[in-house]
Specification:
Elements (H helix, E strand, L loop, with lengths): L1 E3 L7 H10 L5 E5 L12 E4 L17 E4 L6 H11 L3 E5 L8 H9 L3 E7 L10 H7 L2 E3 L5 E2 L4 H13 L6 E5 L5 E2 H12 L5 E3 L2 H12 L2 H14 L7 H6 L6 H7 L1 H4 L1
Parallel strand pairs: 1-2, 1-4, 2-3, 4-5, 5-6, 6-9, 7-11
Antiparallel strand pairs: 8-10
Helix pairs in contact: 1-5, 6-10, 7-8
Length: about 270
């Protein structure tokens, strides 16, 4: 039995689909609202939320492996419950030990279960923060157009999670997952424009104005995010091929993602 936590979340829902597509037959999906989950009928749906461990009674019974959505506040208690119930292997989305999500990785390692950490770079879906600007003004006001990284499609993270849950040889490894190419923010805007069939001007703004532009969507994280953009001008993130090496299929390009999400920008 494989348990998928956060089974209606952005990545967890996709993990369920990937497991089923790969032929998994014993999948249990944890969701806070089973009646609205619209999960496939062959999945065992259970009610609960890892943010409220008191709702998890019996959820881990009979479970051998688990996909763990990242939630720092309760990860220690949840992993302890899982291991006590018999879970032997945990695949988590977290981050390197010097990152924001390091406590998740640490708690999983300290639980006593075998583990694999999936440490993705920036999600391509983060660029949906530009959607409102593009829809209403036809342009993007953004800081540091030369900032470059290798964003990843969440569908690829889910595909990796399913693969490592279903195959051997991944325990004790941390996979730093990226998309297949390093792109500047200006190049990403051009790809979105190509998906829409028109040019989208990128207007470079100051550091402080970039923070102000993002604050409505990101709140207190806007400054941290723009500080990171500044660093990526001098230190671009290098892309790797781990998604393809693990799953056996090419990782999604930003151009493909932009075409898939084009309606969000129209």
């Amino acid at each position: 039995m494989i348990l998928v936590t956060g089974a209606t979340g952005n990545i967890g829902r996709l993990v369920v689909d990937e497991l089923l597509a790969a032929g998994a037959t014993d999948v249990r999906a944890l969701t806070n609202k089973p009646e609205k989950a619209a999960l496939p009928p062959q999945v065992e749906v259970v009610r609960g939320y890892i943010g409220r461990p008191e709702t998890l009674g019996g959820v881990f019974d009979g479970v051998e492996k688990m996909y763990l959505a990242p939630l720092e506040s309760t990860v220690g208690e949840v992993t302890a419950m899982a291991v006590k119930a018999g879970v032997r292997y945990i695949v988590d989305v977290s981050g390197p030990k010097d990152s924001w999500w390091a406590p998740v990785a640490t708690a999983v390692e300290e639980s006593g279960a075998a583990w694999t950490h999936l440490s993705p770079g920036e999600f391509m879906d983060n660029m949906l923060v530009w959607a409102e600007q593009i829809r209403t003004t036809g342009q993007v006001r953004d800081g540091y157009p030369g900032a470059a990284n290798a964003p990843i499609d969440m569908a690829d993270i889910a595909a990796v999670a399913a693969k490592v849950l279903l195959t051997d040889g991944h325990a004790g490894k941390e996979y730093l997952l990226t998309g297949p190419e390093t792109l500047t923010r200006a190049e990403m805007v051009r790809h979105i424009g190509a998906a829409l069939g028109r040019e989208i001007p990128l207007v470079e703004v100051s550091h402080e104005e970039a923070v102000a532009v993002l604050e409505p969507a990101m709140g207190e994280f806007a400054r941290w995010y723009v500080d990171g953009m500044r660093d990526l001008v001098q230190h671009p993130q290098e892309a790797n091929r781990l998604v393809e090496e693990i799953t056996g299929r090419p990782a999604t390009t930003f151009a493909q993602w932009a075409r898939k999400k084009a309606d969000a920008f129209r």
